[in-house]
Amino acid sequence: MTRPDAQQPDPGTWLLNKIDARERALTGQIEQTQAEIDAMAAHLGELHEAIEHLRITRKSLLTKA
């Protein structure tokens, strides 16, 4: 049973609060996912650089052979 003096938020405010909470949650997920993508992109760049170094090394060795 609710207290008679307790005010219930109007349905519009309640819905806006739910939307705001969901938006904050999604924004947090976006930021986390973007950070993961950035880290993976950096790692991918490092892997590309490493394979390029191997290719250069191979080419140098074949040229000297």
Structure description:
With 65 residues, this protein is mainly alpha-helical. Helices cover 83% and strands 0% of the residues. The longest helix is centred in the middle third of the chain and has 54 residues, at 11-64. The radius of gyration is 28 Å and the shape is rod-shaped.
What is the percent of helical residues? Answer: over 70%
Reported for the largest beta sheet, the result is: none
* Helix count from the secondary structure assignment: 1
Structural class: mainly alpha
Residue-averaged pLDDT: 92
- What's the helix-strand series? H
- Into which percentage range does the β-strand content fall? under 5%
SSE topology:
Elements: H1 11-64
Pick out its properties.
single chain; 65 residues; mainly alpha; 1 helix; 0% strand
Summarize the structure.
It is built from one helix and no strands. With 65 residues, the chain is mainly α.
